[in-house]
Specification:
Blueprint (H helix, E strand, L loop, with lengths): L1 H29 L3 H27 L14 H30 L8 H28 L2 H28 L3 H30 L6 H12 L4 E12 L2 E11 L4 H16 L4 E11 L1
Parallel strand pairs: 2-3
Antiparallel strand pairs: 1-2
């Protein structure tokens, strides 16, 4: 069910971004607005990102195999990182083009009503997409969908900025349009950096939130036979957490009894939604 929900959300994102790309590409053809031009490339990056997310979400939900005994969950942070890299390059190019055109005096002569309508549609659609991906990102603990949510939320702000710019430019203040395009490019660049840093943390085994570590400690301590909890370490493997935990038990327990306590502790920790594997070390206590 979770895999089905993830694939469905990926397809919805792909279709929505393709529709917005077509709308803004048409608007760009009818106008020489730099803001509309940069927005078109922003939608192109969103569409490419949606393709990457679709592929990586599919790989992430594949079952563990001989070569990947802990599964393929790192595929989602890889998707987020690729999206961040592409977004950063695109943001730089949009800003560079706008600065060049501003310095050379190449300012737009025609904007028209259709590009303005395209930006309005974009702002409405991206508001819905931000809420949609936000729900799925939380439900599936998916960094790919959280990256899509952040990107959609940023696009709402960028589209609103672009809308103000083209309306002002329509009243003959053409330089505002070029300045807004620079703002769009810088914001795209910032979004790429932010998404990239989050997914690099996942790939490099970032420690979980302290609140989650406390839940892990509490779950282990609640097991019958566990007298005390020692060291607890955790790190992300893709989007899920692997835990190494030391549990102190009565030193008089037999090997079989100690093993049963160990298994019960492992099951209690792995029952937490964010934990994929728990490695328990049992230590005798005099």
């Amino acid at each position: 069910m979770r895999k089905s929900a993830a694939m469905r959300a990926s397809l919805v994102g792909l279709g929505a971004n393709l529709a917005l790309l077509v709308i803004k590409a048409t608007a760009s053809g009818l106008s020489d607005s730099l803001t509309i031009f940069s927005e078109t490339f922003n939608s192109l990056s969103d569409f490419v990102a949606a393709i990457v997310i679709l592929l990586c979400v599919r790989w992430a939900w594949m079952q563990p195999d001989k070569n990947h005994p802990f599964g393929h969950r790192r595929a989602e942070p890889i998707a987020g990182l690729l999206v961040a890299i592409f977004t950063g390059i695109l943001g730089f190019e949009v800003s560079r083009t706008a600065v060049t055109d501003l310095c050379t005096g190449r300012l737009p002569e025609q904007i028209g009503p259709y590009p303005i309508a395209a930006l309005c549609v974009t702002a409405i659609a991206k508001t819905w997409m931000a809420a949609y991906f936000g729900r799925h990102g939380r439900a599936l603990n998916s960094p790919a969908f959280r990256a899509a949510q952040l990107d959609a939320r940023n696009d709402v702000l960028v589209s609103s900025l672009g809308l103000v710019a083209v309306v002002v430019a329509e009243f003959q203040l053409r330089m505002i349009d070029a300045l807004a395009a620079i703002g769009v490019g810088v914001y795209i660049l910032y979004s790429g950096w932010r998404i990239g840093m989050e997914n690099i943390d996942y790939l490099m085994g970032k420690a979980p939130d302290p609140k989650l570590m406390e839940k892990i400690r509490a779950a282990a301590a609640s097991v019958a036979g566990v007298r005390e909890i020692g060291d607890v370490l955790g790190h992300y493997v893709g989007t899920f957490v692997h835990v190494e935990l030391t549990a102190l038990v009565d030193g008089a327990l037999s090997t079989v009894e100690s093993h049963l306590v160990c298994e019960a502790t492992r099951e209690a920790v792995e029952a937490l939604p964010s934990v994929d594997r728990a490695f328990i070390h049992m230590e005798p206590m005099s």
